[in-house]
Amino acid sequence: MRTGKENIAIIRPMKTSTNYDVVVIGGGLVGASLAAALKNSGLTLALVEAGTPPALGDTLPDDWDSRIYAVSPGSRRFLEQSGAWSLLDQTRISPVEEMRVFADNDPPAKTGLNFIGGLGTGSKIKFSAYQMGVPELAFILENRLLQDALWQVMRQQDNLTLLNPARCTALSFTGQAAELTLEDGRTLNAKLIVGADGRNSWVRNQAGIGAAPIDYQQHGVVANFNCERSHRGIAHQWFHPDGILALLPMPGQRVSMVWSVSPEKSAELCSLSFEALCEQVGLASRNVLGRLQVITVPAAYPLRLLRLPHISGNRVALVGDAAHNMHPLAGQGVNTGFRDARELAGQLLNRGGCTDCGDAQLLQRYDRKRKEDITTMQGTTYGLKNLFCNEDPLLRTLRNVGLNIADQLTPLKKLLMQHAFN
Fold first, then answer.
1. Measuring CA to CA, which residue among 284, 324, 327 is closest to residue 308?
2. pLDDT tens-place string over residues 185-196
């Protein structure tokens, strides 16, 4: 008697187990940069990424990525060491040669008062590469281009297994190793798990490392524009009582906008017609670049501060947004993440006779080395945001006077820019 079930295949989860020295969870910029930095380490590596990374091929797209980063000179050197930077099309990178920061007491552009070339003569501070004694202050480039370059490096790594797309379902830790279970049933055993899986890090939660984030009550609105006037390699930033606007130079006569505003204004900006959005950005930027034309649809991201008591634990280390969140006003979020990756890679490469990548003392050294930098950047951005997004008249007067005084003190400006160069 036939039951009708003879041809039904029974599919069981794949059950294979593989041992690694280091498993990186998250293949974004920071996780990928860490894996690439360890390509000649002799360590056995795996990288688990749930999404699909960009594969741009030989021909770059005509459009522009709305996710733009300001990469510091120190981050560039780190990326050069792995070979990723040399794979980038240099025509899609714009160096920042000067940065001009304006307080909120500039006269409106429409009055024409005390204005020279569209720049206000109110309180401001200027940083120039020449004055700082460096070739460039930063490099502006698209997220997808850098991510593609890093994945090109990783695909050529003999010591790296790429698991993509793959999702994690369970993570357990012992004194000797960590065991990671994937959705398809595979298990990975590792001496060290690195959480590079973003602001809502699954690894962080599994490791029991936590703290309540502080909501900035702001969204970062991003978009790219063609501009009538040349930006001349200058990054501009305006601190207004209701938000912080930055225009970053892109190749050609293009700029990338990051406008940190309230959730209500964010929704308003994203709902405007392109023409109305250009008018709003022009007014807020004192029309410094003339007429604007939208070239990428605006998008908004909620902003928050996340301070963790520590960024390592038993057999686990956190990097990038999994380890810290901060305000984007200084453009140091991704650079702080690259410094995480650089420090952790350094600890793994120079661990001496220690054969255990998850050794507690090694991870504690990583934690201590990163604490000062992270705390400094978070404190600076938090303080500046609250100092300038404040309508107290006395405070406004004091901060604007202080900004002008700081502009005259080159040693102080060099100190302020110290972290930005590293």
1. 324
2. 999 999 999 999
User: Domain range spanning residue 183?
Assistant: 17-56+145-213+306-386
The count of structural domains within the chain is: 2
Nearest-angstrom CA–CA distance, 101 and 118: 14
DSSP states of 232-271: TTEEEEEEETTEEEEEEEETTTEEEEEEEE-HHHHHHHHH
CB atoms under 10 Å from CB of 133, counted, come to: 10
pTM higher than the cut 0.70: yes
Between CA 359 and CA 190 the distance in angstroms is 12
Q: How many whole angstroms from its chain centre is CA 204?
A: 18
| Residue pLDDT, tens place only, 228-256 | 999 999 999 998 888 999 999 999 999 99
Task: State the pLDDT at residue 305.
Answer: 95
Backbone angles phi, psi at 249, to 5 degrees: -70, 130
Return the DSSP state at 325: B
In sequence order, what E strands does 26-146 have?
Answer: 45-48, 68-71, 94-96, 98-102, 115-116, 119-120, 124-128, 138-142
Assess whether 209 and 334 both reside in one domain. Answer: yes
* CA dist 93 → 258, 297, 336 (Å): 18, 21, 20
Q: Write the DSSP symbol of residue 212.
A: P
- 42 and 155 together in one domain: yes
- Do 177 and 36 lie in one domain? The reply is yes
Tell me whether residue 97 is in a domain.
yes
Q: Residue 202: in which H helix or E strand, if any?
A: helix 202-206
Interatomic CA distance for residues 279 and 294, integer angstroms? 11
Give the CATH number of the domain where residue 110 resides. Answer: 3.30.9.10
